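Researcher: Re-running this chain for the archive, since the previous output was lost when a drive failed. Same request as before.
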Amino acid sequence: MSYKKRVDGRDFHELRKIEAKVGIIPNARGSAYFKIGKTEAYSSVYGPRELYPSFLQDPTKAMLRCNYNMMPFSGSGDRVRPGPSRRSKEISMVTEKALLPVLDLDSYPNTVVDVFVELSQTDAGSRCAGICAASMALADAGIVMTDLISAVSVGKVDDKIVVDLDYEEEALDAEVSDIPVAMIPSTGEITLLQMDGIIDKKTLLNALKIIKEPLLKINEIQKKALKKKFEIQGAKK
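Model: Regenerated structure tokens:
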């Protein structure tokens, strides 16, 4: 079969509309909002703060703890059951792994940096939106970083490689693969690569080439949101 036109009318390599803000939660050390299509992610950062119990402390660096959560009525499908789930624990772990390569946690021994990601509305791509929001929130918190992390999905619907799949595409009665990807924009290093579905090696490698440009576009939006906050603060002084 041939996938001739995307459900929402986008080009095959086109991102959904993106909105990004930082400094949105007053009591957090750092915070961010990232919306892509209908998927909305809020992230807040607390710390570095002393880690308890003390036997968990590392005298050489800080611990990063990520907590991902979908609100009960956030999903495009069935109601999400409140509280931790196998899926939320898995996404919390991969979010942590995706962010660690750009963080200098050696600067904060014996402490913990807590990152919370809350999804108020989802329409596919929730883990990628959460990673984008968390990366911005960490930068807003002043945590030492070598770069931001940008993330989005790429995949295949029938015979076409598509960028940033939405819920309707994931649910199509077709051969669909969905591949969340996170990248360090300055180096091109991939920090997250997962896949749901089946895809051959040649198509996968082609998809990873195609996704680089959209990830760079997301990175520019993230940086613009951070710059805007500090421009506004500078103007108020």
